[in-house]
Amino acid sequence: MTQQLNSQVFAYAKQLADSAFKAQSVAFKGLEQVAELQIRALEKQSEAAADFFSGALETRDIDGFRVLWEKAAAAGRENAERAVSVTQEIIAVTQKTAESLSALVQEQQLAANDAVAAPVAAVKKAAAAASSK
């Protein structure tokens, strides 16, 4: 009886460790995607800021300042649009990661239910066989 219990506990612990490893892998993949999105957005903003500052340094007259003002307004609008776009992509990645983790939890629950139900069914079957003799 002890051997059977030890076997069941070991199987459940192995299953739990496997599920934790899968969950960690899914979470790290999601974090990697979010970090990649943020780094790309930062690169684009840095490029836009560098272009703007180089234009500002080359401005010498009032017409140049007018053009610079229009560029600043356009850059601000583009940065806002980019921020909204990146935020939407991050939300999509986060949602996909949460769905994957939820599927793993449901899989774990089903496996745990099966692990509990199998020994109970075996005991019931053995009891039914013993009472019919």
UniProtKB/TrEMBL annotation:
The protein's name: Phasin family protein
Domain Phasin: from-to ranges: 8-108
Domain of life: Bacteria
